[in-house]
UDP-galactopyranose mutase
Amino acid sequence: MGVQYCDFKDVDMDEIDAVVVGSGFAGGVMARELAERGGARVLVIEKRPHIGGNMYDEADEAGILVHRYGPHIFHTNDKRAFDYVRRFTEWRDYQHEVLADWYGTYLPVPFNKNSMEIAFGEEKAARLTEKLIDTFGDERKVTITELREQDDPELSEIADFVYKNVFLYYTQKQWGLTPEEVDPSVTARVPVFISRDNRYFQDAYQGMPLHGYTPLFERMLDHENIQVCLGVEAESVFDLEFESDEEDAPLTVINIKDRPFEGPIVYTGPLDELFLSRFGRLPYRSLDFAYETHDAEHVLPCGTVNFTVTEDYTRITEFKYLTGQESDKTTIMKEYSHSYDDPKKQIPYYAIINAENEAHYGRYRALTSALPNFHPLGRLAEYRYYNMDVIIGRALALADELVG
Ligand code: FAD
Ligand code: UDP
């Protein structure tokens, strides 16, 4: 059948039981679950000209499949999430590897026993590794924060090296902050790994959709009960009513096409923007992507190279490693991080997690607590640093709640 695209002006809201804003994994899974498990007639409203959220991929001019909103590698320990996405596409086994470009020498990231040998030489690395094993155990992951807290001079030497050569400059580029200034959970994503395992992730289930993410979303949203309106911003079609004119007065009704909509509304966009940023804009980091196509089979030694001590971009990804595509050309993508200043032209990619921003977000969230049919879900609406699998898991859990 294919995805049923529609024009918002033609939609009869009397024939819609649930509204989903956004078509990334949060919106895509919810739409499918409400339609299939709940038997609801679902309207998906998506402001971009395509479905798939940040997972959207397409062939570029050279015919290379590229990700348009950052490189996305699927990895999870959540079998339910993996089984769910496996329904919609075949998968290829892919284990992501990342190297840090350290003044022209490559160090495996997460920093591990192999990186240690390259950085310190075999003999010294053996001694330092022994110290790490004695302190933390073998095959263990240690965060840079934890490592820097150690008093032992040899552990401090490792911590200083990794801090200066892997974390400091990359984090400054990515967040405009030092590693001490970002929430420890952010750098904890990439621990020091006392292992020879060079993979970026150790999750039980890892891979890439064989034909790309966009076909996965096309199949997920291909259901007789789902209609998708592209190019429509929720703010422009939702008419919000509040308990009073007070700034903090809770939301009581969402009208769509001049009538209160009483079915479930799953909202996966930025919550502050839905309320026209009445308490000030929530801070995010945005990204610019620069693509280059080369007449070569490969230009990088692995999927991603992080530039941890040089360059003004954070990392380069070569998509063919991720997708397994064969071609005598290859496309790479550099990522440049900057603050999110202009909602009209930029995309909010990363919530900046800290106590102040969470309290700020909490004020927006409180506006929604009196409206039982409104469900903020996803990386933006929940203002969290969630990977795809967590979003899929959270969407399935919300669907369990809503449709049993
Ligand atoms: P999104 O994918 O952002 O989808 C939200 C959708 O809502 C978008 O399509 C947006 O256009 C739409 N929308 C927003 N506001 C409105 C509105 N007002 N009206 C209508 N539509 C609206 N995760 C991994 O697991 N592995 C990775 O390798 C990985 N790499 C990443 C790389 C980068 C650079 C980034 C930024 C993220 C990465 N992630 C990765 C995380 C992943 O992108 C998120 O977990 C996932 O996108 C979350 O899905 P979502 O549906 O919550 O949000
Ligand atoms: N990080 C770093 N150097 C690296 C890799 C990661 O400093 O080589 C830090 C940086 O602060 C980054 C965070 O660890 O934002 C999380 O890295 P991850 O690769 O998980 O980021 P994402 O893929 O989500 O952008």
Summary: The two ends are 27 Å apart (CA to CA). The pocket of uridine-5'-diphosphate (ligand 2) is lined by residues 100, 109, 166-167, 170-171, 174, 182, 186-187, 189-190, 306, 308 (CB under 6 Å). The longest helix spans residues 153-175. The first strand starts at residue 18 and ends at 21.
